[in-house]
Amino acid sequence: MTDSEDSIDITHLARLARLDVQDAALQDVQGELRNIIRMVDLMAAIDTTGVEPMSHPLAQAARLRSDEVTESVEREQFQAVAPETAEGYYLVPRVVE
Amino acid sequence: MHPLAELHELREGLRSGAFSSVELTHYYLRRIAEVNDKLNAFIHVDAEGALSQAAAADADRNTESGPLHGIPIAHKDIFCTAGLPTTCASRMLENFIAPYDATVVTHLKHSRVVLLGKTNMDEFAMGSSNENSHFGPVANPWDHSRVPGGSSGGSAAAVAAALTPAATGTDTGGSVRQPAAFCGITGFKPTYGRVSRYGMIAFASSLDQAGTLTRSVADAALLFAHMAGFDPRDSTSASQAEPWLDALRSAPPGACPKLRIGLPREYFAQLEDHTRIDALSAGLRAAGHELREVSLPHTDAAVAAYYVIAGAEASTNLSRYDGVRYGHRCDDPVDLEDLFRRSRSEGFGAEVKRRILTGTYALSVGYYDAYYLKAQKIRRLISADFSAAFEGVDVLLTPTAPGVAFAQNTLADPVAMYNQDIFTVPTSLAGLPALSVPIGLQDGLPVGAQLIAPAFAEDRLLALGLQLQQQTDWHQQIAEDVA
Asked: Around Cβ A94, how many Cβ atoms within 10 Å?
């Protein structure tokens, strides 16, 4: 087991990913994730000295558009699929007591 | 009407008045009613909407009508369709009705296709077997105990079983090409950026590309030409104009010149059975093409780099599902954190959670350089491998998948499943166009070959694929559900 495999703290990762740490299935995931990380650790064997990272397949600069209004906000239509709304607002549990 | 009719035959039948679009639509709806229970290829069938679009297409048909006017198709359930469910095969979006159409959907509406419904898939396009759907697995029409491939497994099975003459799909690491190979049909993934991603639910944004699942290369070319084009709503949409692409909207690909075709030795070294691809190579030589071995030395690192990059992008993209604005929300959340965590844990399936956690790990403090940055550097090396190979050859020929369609419930180990993608992920990392064509049967199951071209040279792939299908009848072999 490498250092990285040993270091998988599934509870911490679940918190970062906003997944339920009580989820029983997460225990299986810990073992699976260890296997996945062991597989991706194969990358360490590749010499990448001086190689520029490639974040995107197209070598083009970000495109800009003119600053004009092109869309309108259809609030009622968008909120029709929301779990809970009131008076045009999205409702969530109370944040400030 | 014949279940194996290609789009140009349907077009001719509609144009000559041999049948109407309403009759054609009834025909496919009837086939769906008869066969879909066995295959589970469709998540949603819109019979009423399809018949009304067909009636409208019949009513205003004239001599100017385009080649797709009144022809039924299906969309993978990853494309937003205004007014129809768009679930991405996830419990998270089980009740989601998109308020707008994806650009692909809009383009095809303008071409007057009839939308039969939305096809099943692996949840959020994450999978190579279509076993990861909230709506249940899809069966392979050639053998119901086997997988159709994934993630566009519903689209592939639906076309193979003639429940629709053609379907859209998306390909992030092989999700059009591998199911096409497993189901014995033609799967086409254009160059990254060629088809708009607007309204296509995001999995890994630097890899996602829409494609086609069809009976033939001629059909792939036609459907592709009606989906592609610059879209200001997609920040990574490719902007160059292509006269050949405009021509494909109404005419098949042109004659194929003699090509230099490269066979990457790293791919063939990992292939289980060479019989079918050797037969294809012999046919290509006989057609006057020159075949030679080439090397893509970083192939073995592609699956690792792909699963780091795709996981990282997925964990970012899927952070939008929070139970607030749309999608699944848990019951009685006690606070905001509880709302986020339980909504996401209940809404996402096991594979989606694995990928989110893999991506979160790769992006987390202390691991970013070792995983995400390292994967991006390997991506550059893989892309450079292709560029070097294309200095000596015009097209690459590889197997599409290591073997034929595997039995359901046999690849329980995620890493074994990920390794199925070995021949398709390198092309995705480099953003190159690739075409999977059927090349015959092995033990009664279809085998596919993959043709890969340099970026934006789709015309070369389509011309070669068409020539191949004019000289062979592998694409006309029939699955069990059609026979």
From this structure: 9
